[in-house]
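Field log, afternoon session.

UNIT: design team B
ACTIVITY: writing a sequence onto a fixed backbone
BACKBONE:
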């Protein structure tokens, strides 16, 4: 099946779109989806893009599938994957720069928004009566802002908040009698320990984010399989485990793994 051509084919660059300021673009997004975005960077959540695709092509994503309360990076990834899947479903040959968008950088998000504005204008032609569904408008009003992430840091430079100077100063001679003085060697030891703990925290957070991304990708695959009636029962059970909380009673994980093995063996043989 031939993929639908984008009409017109638009490169991901601001040179081919109308000259609109960031404020104009943001106002357009908010007026289109009844949103409350304050900055271009907030579009990294993918919510607005999914909602605008739903306006253009109803049911290409499904409003209930959009994580309108997305605040974390793995939730941004989930929404942007849905957005990309909509292009594939509609046979548009377009690759969404997910990795760049989800980082919340202004330039990457602004350039893509410029491209999408052109795409939206092209495919909304003749659809002047586009209206935001009530569910979408309500979700947009209640959507939280993405959590601000710290700037690029390295393990050597990133540290937890430093102790206040007053806590580490060597006591002056005028201090009251009986107070213990902190030696310079003790201060250095404490500072080194603090730096080591900061590095460990960064390492753990990086590992956490890595597994969040993997789980988000697995979640998208499982949901798509359910929609396509592929291993529906197994996928639903896997999703139950994925969404389980600490209070959820343990399920038959071992049985699920055993049921999965024949399917995996079949795919391997093929």
């Amino acid at each position: 099946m031939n993929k639908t051509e984008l009409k017109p084919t638009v490169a991901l660059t601001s040179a081919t779109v109308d000259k609109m300021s960031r404020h104009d673009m943001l106002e357009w997004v908010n007026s289109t989806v009844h949103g409350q975005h304050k900055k271009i960077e907030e579009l990294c959540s993918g919510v607005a893009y999914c909602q605008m695709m739903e306006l253009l092509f109803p049911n290409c994503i499904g409003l209930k599938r959009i994580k309108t309360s997305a605040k974390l990076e793995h939730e941004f990834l989930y929404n942007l994957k849905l957005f990309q899947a909509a292009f594939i479903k509609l046979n548009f040959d377009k690759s969404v720069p997910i990795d760049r968008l989800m980082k919340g950088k202004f330039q990457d998000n602004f350039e893509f928004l410029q491209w999408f504005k052109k795409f939206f204008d092209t495919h909304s032609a003749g659809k002047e009566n586009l209206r935001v569904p009530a569910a979408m408008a309500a979700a947009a009003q209640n959507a939280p802002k993405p959590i601000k992430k710290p700037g690029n840091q390295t393990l050597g430079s990133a540290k937890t908040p430093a102790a206040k100077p007053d806590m580490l100063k060597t006591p002056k001679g005028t201090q009251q009698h009986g107070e213990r003085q902190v030696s310079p060697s003790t201060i250095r030891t404490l500072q080194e320990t603090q730096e080591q703990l900061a590095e460990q925290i960064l390492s753990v957070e990086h590992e956490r984010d890595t597994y969040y991304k993997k789980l988000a990708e697995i979640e998208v695959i499982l949901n798509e399989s359910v929609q396509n009636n592929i291993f529906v029962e197994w996928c639903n059970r896997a999703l139950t485990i994925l969404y389980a909380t600490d209070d959820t009673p343990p399920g038959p994980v071992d049985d699920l793994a055993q049921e999965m093995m024949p399917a995996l063996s079949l795919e391997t043989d093929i």
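LOG NOTE: The chain is about 55% helix and 0% strand.
NEXT ACTIVITY: expression trials, pending approval
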